[in-house]
Amino acid sequence: MGAAIFVKASVVTRYCDSRQKHRQSAASWRDSETSFEQQKGHDRFFEMSNLNQSGVKPKDHLYKILVIGDLGTGKTSIIKRYVHQFFSQHYRATIGVDFALKVLNWDANTLIRLQLWDIAGQERYGNMTRVYYKEAVGAFIVFDVTRVNTFESVSNWKADLDSKVQLPDGSPIPCVLLANKCDQQKEGLINSKSKMEEYCKEKGFSSWYETSAKENINIDEAARTLVSQILLNDKLINDSNKDGDQFSLAHTNDVKKKSCNC
Ligand SMILES: Nc1nc2c(ncn2[C@@H]2O[C@H](COP(=O)(O)OP(=O)(O)OP(=O)(O)O)[C@@H](O)[C@H]2O)c(=O)[nH]1
Ligand SMILES: [Mg+2]
């Protein structure tokens, strides 16, 4: 149901904390050698072939999604599974941030591009630059069910996220908790579903899933839940702005056209 590309960001350290620079990061994601040609191909493909039955071009949304959590919890593996239907046991730590794009034909009238920001666990909450978080409209926080200490960090990641990015009305962006590596022996609170429910409610998670990138468990489901929440927020924001300036969470054209002069 979707198409996807995955590209590596080579330059992440020279971001400065301005809106313009953020757009450069998004633009460099689009403009990088491999992605740009592929993206043009996608654009042409969708322009030509993605008309719905009534010949109308579907609404096109681009949403920035963060994937954060401790080192080695499986963030990259989840993204690779989701985007490429691929898994490897081999661990190569992410440096800085990687990007992936997942294109979803959500329904006959809606095309969604998820710009997935795969942030290295070694970035650590608290030290995370705001630029990574800027304009994100949804997030996954990932922990490893075999290592309790990665669960203990979850509340810090969530607090960091909520302090650095909000929706236009000031509310937190939707965030889904992923208890990854559920194909293995679990340790801690994850063994009690009711306590996990309580924990997620208290910390303000939209939802939580046990996932396995290895066995492909619940990754599509978790993504669908997050996207549904984002679409709902987008609609609420647009509805509340009906009489004023229109604002959308999606920033499709922004990313394509702007470039940085600094
Ligand atoms: N058994 C099992 N292993 C997994 C799963 N997901 C990831 N792994 C393994 O866990 C290790 C770390 O996975 P990564 O996806 O690189 O973890 P990461 O969170 O991106 O790590 P950083 O980039 O360092 O933050 C790798 O050896 C993966 O093969 C899973 O669902 N089950
Ligand atoms: Mg990684």
From TrEMBL:
It is found in: Membrane. Pfam families: Ras. The small GTPases Rab are key regulators in vesicle trafficking. Belongs to the small GTPase superfamily. Rab family. One of its GO terms (biological process) is phagosome-lysosome fusion. The keyword Coiled coil does not apply. This is Ras-related protein Rab. Keywords: GTP-binding, Lipoprotein, Membrane, Nucleotide-binding, Prenylation. NCBIfam families: small_GTP. One of its GO terms (molecular function) is GTPase activity. GO terms for cellular component: late endosome; lysosome; membrane; phagocytic vesicle; trans-Golgi network. It comes from the Eukaryota. The keyword Cytoplasm does not apply. The lineage of its organism: Eukaryota, Metazoa, Ecdysozoa, Arthropoda, Hexapoda. Coiled coil: none annotated.
